[in-house]
Amino acid sequence: MSFDEEWRQAREAAATRLNGVPDESGGGGGGGKDGDYVVTSPDLKSVGNEAQELFHWFENDAFHAGAQTDAASKNLDEDGFLTGSAMWTMWDTWRTQAETLLSACAHIHNHLEDTVITHENHEEILATNFTVSKISEHFE
Q1: Does 121 have pLDDT greater than 50?
Q2: N or C: fewer beta carbons within 10 Å in the chain?
């Protein structure tokens, strides 16, 4: 299957889920009250964990050629090849973009983790307040 075909199928599947139509796995998007999109804590945790996994994988693999690239570009420059400065520019661009991706992955993971924890805390507060209000009704 070509990339374009696979991308088209992924877009169609995402659009289907966002429109509230269940996909083949039985999962649906939308489907909330009044057609609101519903995301559960397990969904958020899953996306956050994927972002964290990508962060760790990419952190290990993104920079392993940096020292060799730097040395090679300096050697080429010293020998008068213009390729040396181009190689260094390419490496600097790659490094900057890799650091941006790592930062985004960390931000996504941390934000979603905080969202799940905040939601769980709010749910606990609501449940506690509801219980206290029910108890208070019996003492009035």
Answers
A1: yes
A2: C
Beta carbons within 10 angstroms of residue 90's beta carbon = 13
Structure tokens at 96: 């900057």
- Please give the structure tokens belonging to residue 137: 């009704």
Say yes or no to pLDDT of 23 above 70: no
Q: How far apart are CA 6 and CA 9, in angstroms?
A: 5
Whether residue 124 is predicted with pLDDT greater than 50 in this model: the reply is: yes
- Give pTM, 2 decimals: 0.57
Which tokens is 134 given?
Answer: 């029910």
Cβ-Cβ contacts under 8 Å for 75 (sequence gap 6 or more): 84
Please state, in angstroms and rounded to a whole number, the distance separating the CA atoms of residues 30 and 17: 7
> Exposed/middle/buried for 138, CB within 10 Å: 0-12, 13-18, 19+?
exposed
